[in-house]
């Protein structure tokens, strides 16, 4: 459903309806509901065949559905609007959750994961884009980061619920927020920029006024959006190959590069198999999971506050440095365990490493790439470019979640050192390539990138 944020804008109150509560279940519980606490209590007759490669496929198949959703997300959002895309995604998630709930064997479980994955793939593009298009420039980063906050809250709720309820009950909880979302979208205005792009002038003005407040003067912002839309109106309909044009290549490298850095730093492997990681280090899976869930929310709130204060670049570099430290500590702990050295330190180092990693990821590496992705592409290529960037993100999620089980069985310390190397390269990439977008309108960002 939508949350309401009341903001003072001059002498008036502006009402911003955010769709980020979507992610409490539709975009956050589903990636983790079977792979963390719930996997510990799954029914043996249903889950018995989920071993070795089959278990890895089950853990990662959601991301396959998300890749399909990512490929189609931009076109869908451009064709039926941001709200229409969210409604469609919610319907896919409902079908997926029902399939999981009624499953008696592996087939329906996998089908459910693919359907929820498809919905998540579309959500992961359209939600940050929608928020970026309705938010004022001075609050856009924080409001877009609210999307990540809701993902974290949903994941944390799922982690904690999974320690006390069965996986079928946990799956059933995914239905309610999806249904509430379908109702809540009726009270949310469509993206004014999308309405302007498709020529619905009266609805554009109404939506913008509603977002900024009844008494707010929106004439300047309206003219700026209209001028920008008119400038790109003569351009042909964008295709994937058009992204290779010189004027689009830099934002494309930035968007794709940030998603590669985010995913190949290991978040989905560490996330999907956190309970096994803690167990391998000699810790209770439940203790580690509860600690994981408890640390994410306050850290993500801090990141949302800092997004429009410290800026995107600095937050991303500090975050990547933290994930490098966390992976290094976890790698050291498994190295010590393998060589039977300082064994009393192994559980503490593993716990500290994983918790530092998730805290650092939550403050920057998690939300920043999505914020920047929603800001850097011109609206005429935002659909195809956003689809490609989101596809890269979900391909990385699949690759990491599928290979993690094999990698950590082969060489646990080496796996974490590999991820730490990616985190180190992330710092260099952001310092060299990523512009600061804080405090600029979307139109100003396009002009600066083109310049």
Explain what you see:
- The protein has 20 helices and two strands.
- Strands 1-2 form a two-stranded antiparallel sheet.
- The model is unreliable at 1-50 (pLDDT under 50).
- The chain has helices spanning 29-32, 44-47, 52-102, 106-134, 140-162, 167-173, 175-184, 192-197, 201-212, 219-233, 246-263, 267-272, 274-280, 285-307, 312-338, 346-365, 368-376, 382-410, 412-433, 442-450; strands at residues 3-9, 12-18.
- Helix 5 runs antiparallel to helix 14, helix 14 packs parallel to helix 16 (346-365) and helix 15 (312-338) runs antiparallel to helix 19.
- By secondary structure, it is mainly alpha-helical.
- The radius of gyration is 22 Å and the shape is globular.
- The chain starts with a strand and ends with a helix.
- Strand 1 and strand 2 form a beta hairpin.
- Keywords: Membrane, Sugar transport, Transmembrane, Transmembrane helix, Transport.
- Belongs to the major facilitator superfamily. Sugar transporter (TC 2.A.1.1) family.
- Its main location: membrane.
- One of its GO terms (molecular function) is sugar transmembrane transporter activity.
- It is found in: Membrane.
